[in-house]
Amino acid sequence: MSEPSTQAIDVAVVGAGPIGLELAVNLKAAGVEHRIFDAGPIGNTIRWYPHEARFFSTAQRIAIAGVPLVTADQGKATREQYLAYLRAVVLQFDLHVDTYEKVESIHRDGDEFILRTQRAGGPRTHRARRVVLTIGDMHRPRRLDIPGEDLRHVSHYFTDPHIYFQQRLMVVGGRNSAVEAALRCHHAGAKVTLSYRRDSFDARSVKYWLLPELQWLIKSEQIAFLPLTEPIQINATYVTLRGPGGATLQAPADFVLLMTGYEMDASLLLNAGVELVGENRAPRLDEATMQTNVPGLYVAGTAAAGTQNRFVLFIENSHSHVVRIMRAITGRDPQHVNELGFTRLNEKTSQPGPAES
Ligand SMILES: Cc1cc2nc3c(=O)[nH]c(=O)nc-3n(C[C@H](O)[C@H](O)[C@H](O)COP(=O)(O)OP(=O)(O)OC[C@H]3O[C@@H](n4cnc5c(N)ncnc54)[C@H](O)[C@@H]3O)c2cc1C
User: CB within 10 Å: which end of the chain, N or C, has fewer?
Assistant: First the structure.
């Protein structure tokens, strides 16, 4: 049973990732009545990163709400450190997050929005005068749609290298997540084969400190590399690949990691009436305010980029979205924000623009 609609709050924030939390801290500091929902726990996207994965962004760039992110070794934060940091931010600012409450639909009703949500206790309805979607852009894996993709030994998520100790592991992909999985599993004792549809790796898509090692391990035949191949079928003990010229080959595999990227689920945006534009199907919005074509509905964080085939939005260059939305809503600059003057430089190339995931 849906609870009866309550009085409208001023702002509903959907998504308690770093950018949603940074916004909530500032709404609270500015005295704006708000509510923040997440379909999972806080930092739900970061939760499914591989165990002990390190951010490529420096700690300063991913720190939120003016709270320093200090790592014990002065290095880049791990998944575990960052999740603990996000929990600390929630505690420090005493944010109330409605976790495990998924917003399933958003509709305009006169001057207000009606948000229908689902949580363990059943559906709920909330009313808000404004809505900010900070829902991220990695909601589901980019599927290959091949037979065997849903077998138990096949996954689109790399979590723990330990699983693959002394197993024949096929990793599919050639960007950062595939390279990192191949290296970490090799070091954890897996016999790794890497299948990639291109003939070589694009240095811009791989953390700069990983590529030389991978290339050496391939050259010394410690990791098998199958360039210009694509899986077309997965069976219990092997993968069938299409190779150059259409020839097929079979490679043994006890486990398969399909590191082929993730997509945005834009259904909430569409359902709210937001237009999607361009190749990435990004929400149509006014860059100055982050307001979409639906008055009162804003988008911030990586969700503003749609599905990113080439990454352009990260945590580090999304802090400014919080500034723009706070200005639009309150007419004032926010108190707690990390707008770093130096974030325009890519750490790998020292050129303008952030590095890729
Ligand atoms: C392995 C890996 C490493 C990465 N390293 C970096 C890095 O070094 N630097 C960097 O900047 N980025 C990195 N990224 C990308 C990073 O995860 C995103 O930049 C960041 O999470 C975006 O923050 P966000 O707040 O915009 O969205 P997210 O962190 O994606 O948060 C969105 C939240 O919205 C919630 N949500 C979605 N839909 C709904 C709904 N309908 N109802 C309620 N809640 C909903 C989700 O559960 C989630 O918690 C990496 C990604 C991966 C996979």
Answer: N
